[in-house]
Amino acid sequence: MTEYISLYRKYRPKKFSEVVGQTTIINILKNSIKLNKIGHAYIFSGPRGTGKTSVAKIFSRAVNCLNSVDGDVCGKCDNCLKKIEDEIDIIEIDAASNNGVDEIREIRNNVKLLPSNLKYKIYIIDEVHMLSDSAFNALLKTLEEPPSHVIFILATTEINKIPSTVLSRCQKFNFKKLNDVEIEERLKYICKNENRLNSVDDNCIKLIANLSDGGLRDAINLLDQSLSLNENIKSDDIYNLLGIINDEEQFDIIKNIVNGNIKDTINYIDSLYSQGKNIPSIVNQLQTKIENIIIYNSTNNYFSNDYEKKLSQFSKIDLDKLIDISKQMFDLLYNMKKSTDQKILIKIYFIKMALTFFDNSLQKNDSSNLKIKKDDKDVNDSDSETSIVDNKNILINNCLSLANKRSKIEFIDKFNIIKDYVTDKKYNSIANLLLKSSPEVVSEKNILFTFNKEFEVILFDKNVDLIVKFLKLLYNIEYEVVGISSENWKEIKKEYISNVKKGIKYVYTDIKKEKIVSNNVKNVEGKIENIFGNIHVTEE
């Protein structure tokens, strides 16, 4: 009987040319091989299932390939044909289970030995952030003066946990989440090769890609499970397989909450439990939906037209109350991990959420009475939004004008202390939010944080005062802070580099004294060309 090989193993890329996405990373690695400019240490960071370990293995083969083709493996020489598991010069280590100083010291002793078969001896350390502090210190000594025949590849999903001293000695590659189109194309390719293209319609492929959240491995595993169900797979089969609910059911629960309908909300939870659903995943789904509603009510044309039509039924909801229940969802997800009776905990939280809207005297099951209309904000709302944008512009400018590398290193070195507050009654929400951020620019009194999700930026803006207070508790410094999206930061950084090359100087502005009036701002982040106006930037 032939052994079944899971699809993600069967279709794992064996060459750079087979890697999906990560084009920039692949090109850099191939060029380094072609030009014989091989580094001694690399860090591959990024979300799970985006190709870090696969690329590490391909790179290990490519640098040792006897007949490399355009920087890629030839697939024909003795070094390429040998199974990587059988190659004694390519050593894979799981730091999650080998995280002590003794294991790293053993590596330090072995790196001095020349490779047995290959040109380079490769150490691939997966989940490297799991190493203990003493293990990192031991690894650091090896990274400082490595033998010329050794290459380290460190893979991690949490680069913020890697000491800056280690980061500074490695070439860093950030693996991005794959977009839905890239994942869909790969899934269709696999279905075609497996002669199952007729078993899964395009809607199911799109759903699997969307639910995988940018992780190709998760998408292929879900496809593998789905193909085992039956010959004709429907969307409901996938939802049931994961124990989650579809968009319509998610919106029904949210309607019950925002209408203050406690009874129907609780009945829905009982029904989900009786069906054996994956409740933590459903809570995560609901939190994402609420994030989307908040973004829809705060911006224009962010989502597709079809999806905005679905969100429009919540266009009149009080934004502050939405943010409040989103924070409660966030707390619920965290507390569920520690609870011995999740069902009671969930009911308590959902009752509390429904009570948030109960005092609005809304008619039950009538979303037409919901409070704030998206397109009819009064003058005060516009003034408040304008003020937020202008303050952000100044804060971003000030961060860049005073940016200091040493301040950033010192700040990041203590950043992990935030984990001590994830169970703190007062600061747990703030601690969890900051742990999702990246401190991109730091000075002695200014910090610019970036977030992957727009919703997290909104939460940051809503809690700036508490964040400042929390950071003062940790660092004894009253920072001025600003939060923006990762996408917006890319544009700002690009603009900043361009301005520096042109000799344009960023001048610090005292935000407490500055008074700005703007009547033409449409959203919280503003346009990139308005962020560094003449009021903040001067030419030398």
Give structural notes.
The structure is a single chain. The chain has 540 residues and is of the alpha/beta class. The protein has four domains: 7-174, 3-Layer(aba) Sandwich (Rossmann fold), CATH 3.40.50; 180-241, Helicase, Ruva Protein, domain 3 (Orthogonal Bundle); 247-369, Zinc Finger, Delta Prime, domain 3 (Up-down Bundle); 379-539, no CATH class. The protein contains 24 helices and ten strands. The protein has helices at 7-10, 23-34, 52-62, 78-81, 101-110, 133-144, 164-167, 180-193, 202-211, 216-227, 235-242, 247-258, 262-274, 279-298, 305-311, 319-336, 342-358, 379-401, 405-413, 428-435, 454-462, 464-475, 486-501, 528-531; strands at 41-45, 90-94, 121-126, 150-156, 171-174, 438-442, 446-451, 480-485, 504-506, 537-539.
| CATH architecture group name of the largest domain | 3-Layer(aba) Sandwich
Strand content: 5-15%
| Overall pLDDT score | 84
Biggest beta-sheet profile:
5 strands, parallel
Class by alpha and beta content: alpha/beta
Name of the CATH superfamily of the largest domain: P-loop containing nucleotide triphosphate hydrolases
- How many domains? 4
Parts with pLDDT < 50 across at least 5 consecutive residues: 360-386, 515-540
Query: How far apart, in Å, are the first and last alpha carbons?
Result: 76 Å
Level-1 CATH class name of the largest domain: Alpha Beta
> Strand order, biggest sheet?
2-3-4-1-5
The CATH topology of the largest domain turns out to be Rossmann fold
- Cα shape: globular
User: How many strand segments?
Assistant: 10
